[in-house]
Amino acid sequence: EGAPLLSSLRRPVPLNPDEFALRAASAWVLDVRSPLAFQGAHIPGAVSIYDDGLPGWPGRLLNYERPILLMADGDDALAQAVTALARIGMDRLEGVLRGGMAAWLSAGLTWERTPTVSVRDLQSRLWDEQDAWVLDVRRDDEVLREPMPSASHIPLSDLPSRLNEVPRNKPVYL
At residue 2, what are phi and psi to the nearest 5 degrees? Predict the structure, then answer.
């Protein structure tokens, strides 16, 4: 018995956008597209973990009991995600969005974007928006080496259990 051989891993079932949306209500939506693609448009509630983060971050951020739906750009990215998840025991992959984000958008389903700002723009915004909040999600050792005195610190791996500490009534910058 034991873990399945990587060569025998089955690919998640391709789901049309409506099927994917229905299942997303009770699953993790793991978006393994590039950070830039995720920032431009993503499914509400999706978790973005890309490339080098796949071997470790899903196990820290996602619950093993909940099924996973994947959003990937292309077969290579999908295969890489399936393999990386299997290596850490996350094998409840119940589907992949057929046609990717383009299909989701064409179906007229709700989507979100994640705006970004440069450091210079952030400085200006913090000056103008006295109520803005900066969240530093780096590991403790990284914060000790290069502290950000005005930022609140919650390591990314702790964030799911500490979301209640993140204000909802003011702009939050990561």
Answer: 105, -170
pTM recorded for the entire structure? 0.84
Phi-psi region of 95 (alpha: psi -120 to 50; beta: other; left: phi over 0): left
Length of the chain: 174
Give the CA distances from residue 58 to residues 13, 32, 65, 83, 145, in Å, rounded to whole numbers and listed in that order: 20, 11, 13, 12, 26
Measured from the Cβ of residue 82, the count of other Cβ atoms closer than 10 Å reads: 24
Cβ distance 105 to 20 under 8 Å? Answer: no
Q: For residue range 128-153, list pLDDT tens digits in order.
A: 766 788 999 999 999 999 998 889 99
Q: How far apart are CA 132 and CA 172, in angstroms?
A: 6
